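so the lab meeting is tmrw and i was supposed to have these ready like two days ago... anyway. pasting both below. for each one the top line is the aa sequence and the line under it is the structure tokens. i havent really looked at them closely yet so no promises
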Amino acid sequence: MLAVQDLGVAFGDIEPLSSVSFALERGEILGIVGESGSGKSLTAMSVMGLLPLQGGRITRGSVNFDGQELTRLPEKEYRKLRGGRIGLITQNPMTSLDPLQKIGIQIDSVIELHLGLNRTQARARTVDILGSLRIPEPSLICDRYPHQMSGGMKQRIVIAMALAADPDLLIADEPTTALDVTVQAQIIKLLKDLVKERDLALILITHDMSVVAQTCDKVVVMYAGRAIEQGDVQAIFHRPQHPYTQALIQCIPHGLAKGQKLTGIKGVVPTVKNYPQGCAFHPRCERAQAICSQQQPAFISVENSFEGLRTATAGSTMKSTVACHFPGEQA
């Protein structure tokens, strides 16, 4: 459904994104994970064709959607895909909706634009979509304004807008960030159900490794604008190869005892203007050696064996890809 190969992005002379590659099939959920500033949302903007609106451009690589190359697609043609076959669930539902327009009108307009239905037909489809998302009294919700909705309800409305034109690919950019834990679980379950019921492909962008573990089939770990490790979710969590991936997993709280401190990663993600030479993670890596600060590691394929594990993956072998000079140590 979607194949991104060696993607590079620039804003003027600055290149915040480089060497990003991944593939996604219909019915799969791909998690893109990393700290803020890793390039997750920029990757989504590249797929959606939104970079020119921000002054950016794709400098190399390809974005192929269902056999169609998007990097050379005219804006007029991109508009037919964006909101149509490719839906976007934005990061903050509180600011994603027009506060001056009723909920029904905002969803109706998407349907009218991409499916060519009249106002009556569009409203009927809007009510049907809201109902399918388990929103009570959908016809009444259509006549309400965003400020009359809770945070969780607003996020469901944003999801309804993304589904309005019956897309093949959904991109969810941090869809649970502004929600409380209970509502987060509801939204994640809703997205998983939608992928299964509608046979969609879903890209889930998040910084939460526990959400990735519960939800995704594949994982791409990003750091400083580069995809540093990727593979099947079981391979990434049971046999992480990159020290950054290992550190992210160690940061997941696991029933901490009273007084026990949370695990963190020392340092911060470097800014685009200050990407270090060699492996960008080496200033924060506890096992970095001289070569790590001098040479950027190439991507290598690693075969992971799960013999002896008492999990669903026990006895299987899976591959992952990692960019590290010393992969797998302390795994």
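ok protien two:
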Amino acid sequence: MRQLLTIGKYFKDKFGEKVYKIPISISGFTCPNIDGTVAKGGCTFCENESFSPNLTDKSKFKLNLKSNENPYLEKQLLQLEYQFKYTKERLENKFGAKKFIVYFQSFTNTYAPLDTLKALYEKALSFENVIGLSIGTRTDCITDETLNYLEKLSKRALPNYLLSPTHSYKNYEIWVEYGIQSIFDETLEKINRGHDFANVKEWINKTKQKDLLVCGHLIFGLPNENQEMMLQTVTESINLKIDSIKFHPLYVTKNTLLAIDYQKGNFRPISENLYIDTLIKSIKMLPANISISRVTAGIGNDSLIDPLWCNDKHQQMKKIKSALFKENLFY
């Protein structure tokens, strides 16, 4: 039986104890195919509020790479502090958590002027027991200037109180999480992604050249893709030398462009059996050094339209672990 390298195991091996990610949602952040810079309407599957449990302020103010000012920065810093402290306290009380990564999760968290990013990232790293950042973004929403700054953060020494006498880590852990989704340009166009795969390759390569850690997000069940195409996306993502990977099934939620296609009969979601089979094949392809950050996703509220098997992540995980066990793999 082979133990898979989960992101949890990676952190425990490196830091000597479990590291907890604290998800953060900051109002004012958006992306270029929502604000109309590269496309309109967002990705066809995107209904951001369903992915933003911490976001309570639906401000109309939106940042972009060309913003000259940010009058809401102080409010954003307060949001960051409130969300971090609330979740940290809960994790400490429930699990005895001692080390944390601040995860800028919702929206596109490099799609803002560098001064804003610096203020938010520096604030996050100043919190007690934080050993790093994980920044969710798109490959068309990051700049060389931002990558240079993140490279400097990754070389910054951790405070002495966070160091371990039995483990050799010394610097902050800086991850950039990119939505790869698919390597096929026709698919990216179909889902209104707003960029091509060449853009993904360019910026992941640049990020790796800075010795930053990269997590790639892949979606199985995208329109008109068969299993062979999905597995090709896995292969090409591996070739990009990513450090971790997240697998997601494509599901339909209310108030999305995908929901309209679904209602017209133009889209049929992936079956649970095909998803699990594709996932197992993908995991078996992964080199030992690529950690697995997620094997599935779902949404357990009434915004889910289809497939209904995505509304119970606990049942999904039971079936996935059982399928892995049959392949002598332990997750």
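from a quick look at the 2nd one: The first strand starts at residue 2 and ends at 3. The domain at 2-330 is CATH 3.20.20 (TIM Barrel). will dig more after coffe
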